[in-house]
Amino acid sequence: MKKVQSHCFVATVVILLALDVVLTTTSFAGGDKYSPRLVGMGRAFTAFSRGLDAVGVNPANLAYNDRDATVTINLVPIGFSIGSDLINLQIYNDFFTGVDDPVTGQRVSKFLTDQDKDKILELFPSGVAHTQMRLETAPIGISVQAGNFGFAIVPSVYTALNLDLDKSYLEFPLRGYPAGKSYNFDNTAINGQSVAEVNFSLAYLLPIQFPFTSDIAVGIGVKYLQGLAFIATDHYKGSVIPEVIDNPDGSQSNGPTVANFDFLQWVAVVDEKNPKPAGTGLGFDIGVSMKLMDNIQFALSVTDIGKIKWDQNTKAIIGNASLRLASAGDPENQQKLKDAFKGKTIDTTGFEFALPTAVNVGAAIQMDDMFDVIPFRWLIAADGHFGLNEIGGNTKLPQFSIGTELDPVAGWLPLRTGIIIGGRERFAWSAGFGLHFANTFDIDFATQSIALLTNPGTFRTGSFTMGMRLRL
Fold first, then answer.
1. What is the chain's mean pLDDT, rounded?
2. Alpha helices in 72-216 (DSSP H)
3. What is the Cα–Cα distance from 286 to 201, expressed in whole angstroms?
4. Does residue 151 fall inside a structural domain?
5. Structural domain of residue 60, as residue ranges?
6. What is the pTM of this model?
């Protein structure tokens, strides 16, 4: 009986820790670009973005004509996306809604077979479950394009979170504690931030050209940043390992439990009693864009160069424990194990972290310019995005995308779609459309999770983006 209680307790600790991690960090959730055009085309933005769409992704494109508009004004665009490996609708319906009792006809709990547990654990690709949440909005923004110059100023607020959990968090409660089975939690990581920024971007179309190259534009964006909240995992090592006892009958059983933890996380958040920014910083975006052989638009940008110094209400979460628990069911040992999982939170001095720097490279082709037989506007674009760190929702996992925009009815109903491969999402299919009235007022919608409609049982990402724009 004590052995059963011990196993149940350890499994409960693991579940509570996972929930504690999620509940602690959802306040830092969010972060994707808020342009429906960019999202609808699979975020293949580096070469084709124009006007306000270029702010924060490739400032050089501000120098190009944006549908003949001199002044463009954003009206509260907003983008939201959330995705996770931890659950999908099919797994929920199959294993967590119960089954019909053949006698009473009522719903009762489902007994999970080993095959059922294997199916659930397939949610962890490569042994790690990725969760990401992103939210971004800009109350208003304005861009101006005149002659060879483009300029924009955009205030915005974004929130971004990445959460990684090791397969052991779910395998432990599902598999229990068989003799010799150990669990480690080394892949645990939480990285997120919430930041308000004002972006000043400037672009210039150079009055020079080279062989096979024309319309060369360069741009820079400078942004003043005020940090609202931040969390980053410096390192995380954790394991729960039972010592194995050889019994006289030749069987094996678990002996004392050995638990080791070594982790460090940095946290900063605005103090409600003293609502000053938790951090301040300066960031830069740089970009170049050009036409190759008169038909291919090629572009390169580096975004979010810089750092934020977090110096208000800063804390460190430290875990440093090595325990040998003869009886995990003992109340005192239970508390020790729980404290080891949670670590200790202490006040600390300020710290600096880089912005979520990324390199973006892309190309775009206006198919109707290339082939006169095409009777409507048709754009195809492709991109590669390469994060340089894991800060603030960023990722070092490369991401590639291809998108297209069709405009079959005289410019008032553009249709968009695209696919994203790689990154934390691994795969996403996006789509969107716009309603453009007299080339003066636009309203656009997009989602990065059209698979939600085509395959609702296994979808893992939900997103929605909308925006309105005035053109003068």
1. 85
2. 89-95, 114-121, 168-175
3. 9
4. yes
5. 2-88+123-471
6. 0.83
